[in-house]
Design a protein that fits this description.
Its main location: nucleus. By secondary structure, the chain is an all-alpha fold. Helix content is about 65%, strand content about 0%. The chain has a single domain, classed as Rubisco LSMT, substrate-binding domain (set domain protein methyltransferase, domain 2, Alpha-Beta Complex). It has eight helices and no strands. Helix 5 packs antiparallel against helix 8 and helix 6 crosses helix 8. It is elongated, with a radius of gyration of 18 Å. The two termini are about 25 Å apart.
Length: about 130
């Protein structure tokens, strides 16, 4: 369903891999009975048009059912733990001109990418809290 990396792509306004995330949340939040039925039917063949046309915007993420929100919240926390430094440490480094200029160009770019990723993850935490 998700691929080898098991990663989803999040943007500032919506989930960019919404189909994968939506399906994964559905399956992971199923009861054992629901999952057995799902397997027997080889998935959902007759999804409603509403589900097919819905996007996982930030607003939609905040309206997810509690088990799905908890799963996302815990997943985001695990992802944030995998980073070496927290958001504040990255922000402090970005704001410290002297320390920032000591970084190589590649390190500066990596810092900007990590900081942006962490900001998106923190935004997601707020949406599913």
């Amino acid at each position: 369903m998700v691929g080898e990396e098991g990663a989803f792509v999040l943007g500032w306004d919506e989930v960019l891999t919404e189909e994968e995330l939506s399906m994964t949340l559905k399956v992971l939040c199923m009861s054992e009975e629901e999952f057995k039925e799902y397997k027997e039917q080889d998935g959902w063949e007759d999804d409603s048009e509403e589900e097919e046309n819905s996007t996982l915007s930030n607003e939609a993420l905040s309206r997810l059912k509690t088990p799905c929100k908890k799963l996302l919240y815990d997943s985001v926390l695990l992802t944030l733990e995998s980073y070496g430094a927290d958001l504040k440490a990255e922000q402090d480094l970005l704001n410290n001109k002297e320390a920032y200029e000591k970084l190589s160009r590649r390190e500066q770019q990596a810092l900007h990418v990590r900081y942006g990723q962490k900001r998106i993850l923190h935004q997601l935490l707020e949406l599913v809290r």
